[in-house]
UniProtKB/TrEMBL annotation:
Protein name (database record): Exodeoxyribonuclease 7 small subunit
Enzyme class, spelled out: hydrolase
GO cellular component, one term: exodeoxyribonuclease VII complex
Gene Ontology annotations of biological process type: DNA catabolic process
One Pfam family it belongs to: Exonuc_VII_S
A molecular function (GO) term: exodeoxyribonuclease VII activity
EC number of the protein: 3.1.11.6
Gene3D superfamilies: Exonuclease VII, small subunit (1.10.287.1040)
Family affiliation: Belongs to the XseB family.
Keyword terms of this UniProt record: Cytoplasm, Exonuclease, Hydrolase, Nuclease
Organism: Paenibacillus montanisoli
Length: 81
């Protein structure tokens, strides 16, 4: 899978591919060179999924009711309360 293909892949599709790679590697029925290539692809997909989750987390805002009405607060800060 090319780098530009990985960038445009959905989170769900990346996770499915990552699960498929893990399954193949766990089977132990893969030649060493193929296992290394699968491992490298899996690491890239793992980083991509982590990045996509961070992007989504930054977009999520939690509305918190305060004395002055509703106040928008970033998701990460809301978890710290």
């Amino acid at each position: 899978m090319a780098a530009n293909e990985q960038e445009s892949i959905s989170f769900e599709a990346a996770m499915e591919r990552l699960e498929s790679i893990v399954s193949k590697l766990e089977s132990g029925d893969v030649p060493l060179e193929t296992a290394i290539e699968l491992f490298q692809e899996g690491m890239k997909l793992s980083q991509l999924c982590g990045s996509k989750l961070e992007q989504v987390e930054r977009k999520i805002e939690v509305l918190i009711e305060t004395e002055n009405g509703l106040h928008k607060k970033p998701f990460a800060q809301a978890n710290e309360d």
